[in-house]
## 1
Amino acid sequence: MRTQLEALEKISRQLEPVAGKREAVRKKVIDYAENFINHIESIKAFELKSESNSGLLSFPIAEDPGDIENVISLLKNYVDHTGLNPASGGHLGYIPGGGIYYSALGDYLADVFNRYAGVYFAGPGAVQMENMLIQWMAGFIGYPATAAGNLTSGGSIANLMGVVCARDASQIKARDFERSVIYLSAQVHHSVEKAIRIAGLKECIIRYVPLDERYRMKADDLERMIVLDKTNRLLPFLVVASAGTTDTGAIDPLDEIGYTAKKHELWYHIDAAYGGFFKLTAEGHEKLKGIEQSDTLVIDPHKSLFLPYGSGVLLAKSSNQLNASHHYFANYMQDAVQATGEISPADISPELTKHFRGLRMWLPLKLLGVKPFRACLEEKLLLAKYFYEEVQQLGFEVGPAPQLSVVTYRYVPKTGDADAFNKQLLEAVQKDGRVFISSTVLDGKFTLRAAIVAFRTHLSTIDLLLSVLKENVRLLNAN
Ligand SMILES: *Cc1c(COP(=O)(O)O)cnc(C)c1O
């Protein structure tokens, strides 16, 4: 047995590369990363994948080791530039963020230490870090000191947690589903509707509250609908508002909805996945008034705090419901139960073992301070106003003035179908690839969007977008 163990040990020790080997591989990886960042301005924001190759699939996982140069060349050829480049400032589609460098270093350390961030007993420092970040966000949102929350993988999971809290707080049972009512706006992010389904609530009645001309939920109509539903012996229990919709950046009337929710005892969930961090700016602070009235709230650091993907947050005004909905006990966990006053993430979220997610957020905030984040968000708000003005100078029709940093616009040609024209224009911009924009449908019309959120997006990027639009409108009109 000993000889067998020795033989196995020899092979399994390959999992721990020696210092020299670590250095050699690390150097190659760092060089590769540095090269990427140093050339980020010239790397396209979007590149269509060529149909002619099967990409990574031609290089299956094998028994034998590969070398780092080969592996990097696979990444270069098949991964790091095809499709969308979310690290580019030219990414102006969907809701971008960028991915700040110090987060990568935070992840590096988190993965080397591999601290257990789920339970205080196992990783007191890691848990404290997470809870401290939660308190920081709860603070600028305007939640009380009793607030709690969880670092999630993204906004979708955070929305799911909020919906689960609402379900459990209202104590609806399966027999009540068909009488229970949820109020949404037609502009709600689809992850909320997905969360409703996953939470087992798809048989509930879902009412879409009408929108005003700026795509915001009409609070008066919400109240009218709740009253009517109550009269009809239905059970209104949840309203979801958006603090910055994905489509247009619209902010629902958070204060009025909060008032109505409280009056009729509905759970109030706000999706601020995109808009939440704008609360750090003076303008955003004003515009997001009422956000603190919510019971639960989603805010995505991988959007408006510019972290790399994999960071969402669920905040709750009180830990009670989060705890009631997620807490479990098992015999093999008995050593981990401690009266510390510090909340363990595992007790208030679906995850047990989790990535040491706090470090990717804590490290950049500690190294940079909050100031540059605030300035970057202010810059984005102003760039959106700038683009809104300038794109009209090019002859585009625009949607409502931007409430945050999303602008909607479309070109209406003198002759021909406007939807088809804008579709062609979008394709032309994507083919050019220096900037990336996405589209949506508003009031039945094919509409272009510019979502100005990424931290690497600056004045020159928006000027580039304007010139790409101008040039391609000219070409399409000449056809
Ligand atoms: C992006 C987004 C979500 C979903 O968050 P993910 O992090 O992509 O899971 C939810 N709501 C809004 C408003 C968003 O913009």
## 2
Amino acid sequence: MSLADDSVPVSRADLEALDADDPLAPVRDRFDLPRATSYFDGNSLGPLPRSVRRRVESLVDEQWRRDLVSAWNVHGWIDLPRRVGSRIAPLVGARPEDVVVCDSVSVNLFKLMSAGLGILRSRAGARSAPRRIVVQAEHFPTDVYLAEGLAELARVAGGEVELFRLPMDDLLDDPASALAPHRGAVVSLGHVDFRTGRILPMEEVTAAIHDAGGLALWDLSHSAGALEVELAGCGVDLAVGCGYKFLNGGPGAPSFLYVAPEHQEEARTPLPGWLGHAAPFAFEPTYEPADGVRRFVCGTPPVLSLAALDAALDAWEGVDLAAVRAKSQTMGDAFLALAEAHLAPHGVEVACPRDAAHRGSQVSLRHPEGYEAVQALIERDVVGDFRAPDILRFGLAPLYQRHVEVWDAVAALAEVLASGAHREERFRRRGMVT
Ligand SMILES: *Cc1c(COP(=O)(O)O)cnc(C)c1O
């Protein structure tokens, strides 16, 4: 894309015209958004879908209060991990029975890395192959920490896991050569980079991992609900994703996990809890894994959170992910064109791919006073976020955002930087969560 490209909408009127014809415009009403707010942080915490309030209220008032323990059966609470998983499955290109919702992304990464090592071990058979995990060097920190944790656990238990950090650029340049030195590894990657929004080509990289005798574990935290994902179509082995970002499941919503059908029989969880047992209420002295992905459920499901996520998924009813992706790309292209014209003179640089095909559903910019600028923007009802050291991040969520908000966000940021409003002392104070 270049600024000279006439197809990129760059006036406020262009963006208003797109809103007037937007097939997704009515979906905005499914969300209870603060009226004056332009919300560009749905990739950190999705906003409240209206269906969630009703569902949580009825769960508390009717099911829990009135039906007490019988609600586990009567209202199907016990089936929520599978049921909610089956609703997420079509958003990530999986069969309904191959996805389950439980625990956090962090915990699920640990479980699936361990399961992946087990699958590779039994594949190696009598040959004693090394245990290897490769993580993307720029990965979200938790994804790396959990890999370190698993390696540490192996050491404590007298074993060894080799851990290697592979730079994303190497994978993008030539996946086969990048992976050649790491044969037979569980390779843990982010589909969309949380800082830069860069997409790793899932099909090509997964094929390269398989050629190197490994298993592909993808983190879909920034892609589920933001772009079309084809887990089965790309031959992905294992995947995790986030419930509270683009899926709008609410603060701390549980995560989903996917195990390819061909691995389910063999996959073992390192946290074999009673609710992943084949017959939890037989209270048997020895663990017997449940069939399929249900074995990855560990303990009692967080019913309130699961019900909120379940209800949040109603917002996707009748929504075409291709339309979501197309709108997100248009918004992103417009954002970058406007940033180039109005923010570059204030020292703002583009930190995400300019080509929409390589960019997830976010725009990332760079500025040395990014933190303060984001705080000043929030005071102007434009909510984005900041990712250290210098990234201003604007999530694009076509279910509820209007094109014209892009214009307003860039205008507000240009005004802040031009006036120096962000230099006021109060914008320097940092909360624990940025
Ligand atoms: C948001 C996010 C997580 C969050 O993990 P939790 O354990 O659910 O807090 C993990 N990985 C990535 C890539 C993320 O973007």
